[in-house]
Design goal:
By secondary structure, the chain is α+β, with helices and mostly antiparallel strands. The protein is 33% helix and 25% strand. It folds into 2 domains: 97 residues, no CATH class; 377 residues, tRNA-splicing ligase RtcB.
Amino acid sequence: MKRAAGWRSAWWTCDMNPDSFERVADYAWRIAPFGRMRVPAVIYADEALIREMDDKVFEQVTNVATLPGIVQAAYAMPDAHWGYGFPIGGVAAFDPDAGGVVSAGGVGFDISCGVRTLHTGLTAAEIAPIKARLADRLFARIPAGVGSTGQLRLNAVQMDAMLRGGARWAVEHGYGTAADLERIEEHGCMAGAEPDRVSEHAKRRQRDEIGTLGSGNHYLELQEIVEIYDARAAERFRLRQGEVVVSIHCGSRGLGHQIGTEFLREMVLAAPGYGIELPDRELACAPIRSPVGEAYLGAMRAAINCALANRQVITHLTRQVFADVCPGTHLTLIYDVSHNTCKEERHTVDGSSRRLYVHRKGATRAFGPGHPSLPAELRDVGQPVLIGGSMGTASYILVGTEESMARSFGSACHGAGRAMSRHQATRQWHGRALVDELASQGILIRSPSLRGVAEEAPGAYKDVSAVVEAADRAGLARKVARLRPLACIKG
């Protein structure tokens, strides 16, 4: 934590007893319940990452532990940092049979933001002579930036069909193939979506945003596989050193943000009527089995489908560019996984199987070997876990573990995690200088906003390699491959 006096002293700023903070393993720290906490809080990190975390992480993860119906513990992943209500990198599961709640703040505003990674079948050497051309064509073909819009414009009927069907809807309309669906979380379509629960304002915001990256930390990136850690998993994922992949990081755009905004407001107003005393208004929630909770779940699932459709359409556009620039190439999907969701899942707690609602905010699902939801060809090795970098830094592919199912409801980190605010970043870096610096390292940046580039400077983030190492050592997911950026299309 950012405290000159040492990490222990910072616990007093949250009115916490330092004696209740216990290092239970090299990469796990436990806060015993105090005050209104119903369960412990557990933070997965090494000591260096713990020292770097801002005090708000500890305040927020212990606040989450006070919510009704929470099961086992409130968790923070190694990339945890301050968020809205829940820390980003927060994981918590709730039992509907014990009065468990669903929290819009526990999902976040960019519902179902996630990463999908595709094989190109090309080596870095083959890409090198055409890298600039590919970057230019991808930037021209795939809209990026604040308020970016695409060529696909949906009417009311099409919008509702997309919100019900997700990536399946996209495939049915010619954006990709049925084979893609086998490598997407939920097989490309989140069940239980209710477009009628999504406001007309949210739908209007999304009307022409399908097939767009958006802004902030969203990107499309060409990446070279530079190191293999787990030969067996890499072989099953068809990862080979020296080959190039494409990673796409984006979510549900304006629709998801509007759903989050509207339901947070509604949950704050409804909480007293359900007897819920919030430790923080940003933790607004409602019982899972309540009209407000059920309405949010229906709308949130529709937003998940929106994000899955969005990444599917972007994949189609990417394939078109590669077909034009590199005739004969065929991009195949490795996996697509989201990191801002609440999902109904079955987990074993205290020896018994329970149906829980697992919130992952800035945390990636990381199911271990044998899980029935995984594609048949990957089930014996585990789920690919895709960890994004930040323009000039590495990205990683990990694989879910059996340990993760017990330690974090099958969850891992999702990226590096911010080390400073966007405002602080723009005071320290300038976009043009960053673009030139990265170009000198062989990394091409294409963005409509130099300010956006400065906000997303690699130095504004934690060390992603340290975060991934902590996740690996904590048993949350196992390292499979490291990727380095070649060209990045930024919002």
